[in-house]
Write a structure and sequence with these properties.
single chain, 351 residues, alpha/beta, TIM Barrel, 7-stranded parallel sheet, 16 helices, 48% helix, globular
Amino acid sequence: MKPNLQNDLLLRAARQEPIERAPVWFMRQAGRYLPQYREIRAKNDFLTMVKTPELASEVTIQPVDLIGVDAAIIFSDILVIPEAMGMKLLVEEGKGGPRFPEPIRLYTQIRDLKSVNASEDLSYVKDAIKLTVEKLAGRVPLIGFSGAPWTLFCYMVEGSGSKDFQNAKQMIFSREEDARRLLQKLTEAVTDYLVMQIEAGADVVQIFDTWAGILTPDDFEEWSLQYIAEIVRNVKQRTNNRAPIIVFCKGANQSLIEIVSTGCHVVGLDWTVDIAEVKELFDGSVALQGNLDPTILYASEHVIEQRVFEMADKMGGPNGHIFNLGHGITPGVDPSNAKFFVDAVKRAYNR
């Protein structure tokens, strides 16, 4: 039996129910900026941490204990899905991020990709979620997540991160049928994966489309958003809409109306858009998450507090707002600044 939540601010904010203050959490909050994380990482490689439920659970909970955030997000990586489909994934320290040594370039590679059964192929994530829910004992909600099909497609076709994703774009422009076949396979895998996470105990799920911003507005709708909309629709249907869904499409501010039309409960915003203008645009039809510049955490406490209070004032009240950065917390951040940010959010509604 899942324990009742003592702090359900995130869930109420996501569903736009009345709240006394906005909840706060960070993307990448379980990570390298925390000395306690680095201690564990020094003894284990990254994928071992992801695939060992006890380690994944431990680092998931660290920010709740150390920083005071209002939610935990399960420690994992978006590229576990391509790996479960049969691609070899390498994560090597100091070599420019994760990479696939044999990227998808041929029809036969797409054809031979395995269909993902998330409960079996990604059982270590399921086990990590169950263990984390047990350890949290209802203190805060747990967030599950997945990369969006387009972002996963980019990594799988390119083989790694890239400035222009030439190979990924070449496929959508010159081999449309192959591109659609791969994106559809990913859509089905992501749907199954998110459903599995909710069934394992995740209270909220977020879809990350990190590379949304490399597409034109029309191409974003064609090659990314229609697949995200299919995932949102099917996850809601298969789980009886019991977990709010956050959609975060970095760099796609020109398509916010279309993102809302996916039916998601929350739209995550990067830091290049004014949240007050977005709030006015949607007039309460969707909750908003974000969106301070991640580098604000390198500023003085005075500046951090000032920016937090300004954002709280811009929103005109906590309802329908989840405090976060406009992207992930960076490794060089002082944990005391992250904690000060969280405390400032908690003070912002008692001035």
